[in-house]
Amino acid sequence: MSSVIDDVAVAAPAAPPLASRQDGTHPRPQLLRGAWADLTGTWDFRHDDEDAGSDAGWAQGFPDARDIVVPFPPESPASGIGDTGFHPVVWYARTIRPEDLVTVGHGVDRPRLLLHFGAVDHRARVWIDGQFVGEHEGGHTPFTFDVTEVLRGSGSGVGAGAGTGGGAPVTEHRLVVRAEDDPHDLTQPRGKQDWHQDAHAIWYRRTTGIWQTVWLEAVPTASVAALRWTPAGPTAVDLSVRFRGRPPVGARLRVALRFDERDEDLGTTEFDAASHHPTLDVTVPIGRQRNGQAEDELTWSPERPRLVDATLELVDADGRALDTVTSYLGVRTVGVGGGRFLLNHHPYDVRSVLDQAFWPESHLAAPEPLAHRREVELIKELGFTAARVHQKTEDPRFLYWADRLGLLVWAEAPGAYEFSPVAVQRLTAEWIAIVERDASHPSIATWVPFNESWGIQHVVDDPAQQAYARALTDLTRALDPSRPVITNDGWEQQHTDIVTIHDYEGDGSRLAATYADDAARAAAVSGIAPSGHFQFVGGASDAGQPVMLTEFGGVAYQPGSAREDGWGYTAASDGDDWVARITALYDAVRASSFLAGSCWTQLTDTMQETNGLLNADRSPKVPIEQIRRAVTGR
């Protein structure tokens, strides 16, 4: 079927691609349709330091605009702005053109137009043609507006009759975004974004405004809005589907699973959709009943990242497809037991690296979509099986490559800097959205709502802060009972599934003694930990959980020209000394009788922190084989 928009014939969108083999550019990799329009690129931009734009009518357009390249934050060189000063309010504008509607296949079969934002830090208000579309708070989570009615009201011909020749001609539309990100508002979940004018200590340049993809999509009146996969054993998976619009009477959801790696169809199942609005929760069988000796044929792990493809069709009573999306899932379990981290019910030694996911040219935004693939590849080439993405909610495209190439991910909330009712509300709301967005990714192995007591600085003796930490941990378990939860990574823990310790001891022999055996374990987790903080608070104590050293190392080395402000927790004199120090510290971890995992600080140099295994540009400081040998011991 084809439609006509502004007298341009538009072919019906192609079928969505096989999700497990997509090219990694789609901003929502686990829910694909056949077409979408990328609205990133050159936009108009202006700072609004006096916050005068709203009263001055900038929603209709603003004067003295500069060019900015979206999605790069205005503090970054890649944006074309590169202004790192304090600018708490900024404005963006872009034209939506008829060809954008053509690209997404807008027409009688797909009459609803959705405007998606991957992330805007911290608060966004959006207008089209001067009409207010909506607002969103939370700088690390996606949001979507159905803009069909706004465009129809502006005389565009969008909506009923659009694409059939019966509406008004499609015209250009002006999209305007106001972003507010106060660098001194300590209640905002901000992670490692500095509140000083210049980056200092462990904090980096700020990321203001749009920093992930802005995109347009056309969907049917009744469509799949979101989905979630949860493995339910080796032969089934739980599926939750949320619909946008009510499916018609008699509508059914058809779910087909396929293991493309072996060219094997795993079965198709249909479910009643009409009586399950807005959410359908079902269990989907995965293929035939498998021989118990071959249950691992489909399981996902870093060593064998097998993915199962899914096609979901919403069909009417006559079997006609109303909406078709593709997705993928990984069949795997994670948990704890016997003092170990368990992957697919077996002990698994977690060898992780701390990833700040910050680029010198583009800051929190990746310099281009496939940079996420290279990040995962580099982590694996260095010998790691996991990454702890630190104080940042990473772009879903990074998680796609972690799923596809095989990398466990520690998912961590960006912290706020104070404890108050507003800070509690903001972090809780954003964390719920983060878990909802990312829960289907098999790569995510655990959730980390707090790090080093950021935002709960007095949790050691404040009952209210203790209650908050416990509550958010238990809320995380309620949202996703399938993964372990780390209450507060590093120290001052309670009710945690994994005991995590931060220890930057630079001498390998002393580190080995601290984590040698069961007696050393008891000493490390009792009372004052090696970090100098209480390991447990609020009456909590060691319950035999796995113990991991989730920050260690941090050895600085600057080959070539050195930053005067560069630093690490210890420093090497040259490349050979640096490799020897890494080897000695990893030998200590490998010699421990009880450590269930570790996380090296850190993957890359990041601004003034020169303790990365790689330079800031992702080049290795010494041949990568030497680093891998130090990390893996082989």
Stretches where pLDDT falls below 50 for ≥5 residues?
Answer: 1-11, 159-168
- Strand order, sheet with most strands: 28-27-26-25-33-30-29
Count of discrete alpha- or pi-helical segments spanning 4 or more residues: 10
Amount of helix: 10-25%
User: Mean pLDDT score, rounded?
Assistant: 93
- The total strand number stands at 33
Strand content: 25-35%
Class based on secondary structure composition and strand pairing = alpha+beta
Using the CA coordinates, give the radius of gyration: 25 Å
What coarse outline follows from CA principal-axis ratios? globular
Largest sheet: 7 strands, parallel
The oligomerization state is single chain
Q: How many angstroms does the end-to-end distance come to?
A: 58 Å
Topology:
Elements: E1 2-5, E2 8-11, E3 37-38, E4 41-47, E5 66-70, E6 89-96, H1 98-104, E7 112-117, E8 120-121, E9 123-128, E10 131-137, E11 143-146, H2 148-153, E12 173-180, E13 209-210, E14 214-219, E15 223-231, E16 236-244, E17 252-259, E18 264-272, E19 279-285, E20 308-315, E21 321-329, E22 334-337, E23 340-343, E24 346-347, E25 350-355, H3 371-381, E26 386-389, H4 396-405, E27 408-412, H5 421-438, E28 444-448, H6 463-479, E29 499-502, H7 508-514, H8 518-525, E30 547-553, E31 555-556, E32 570-571, H9 575-591, E33 595-601, H10 624-632
Parallel strand pairs: 25-26, 25-33, 26-27, 27-28, 29-30, 30-33, 31-32
Antiparallel strand pairs: 1-2, 3-14, 4-5, 4-6, 6-12, 7-11, 7-14, 8-13, 9-10, 9-12, 15-16, 16-19, 17-18, 17-20, 20-21, 22-23, 23-24
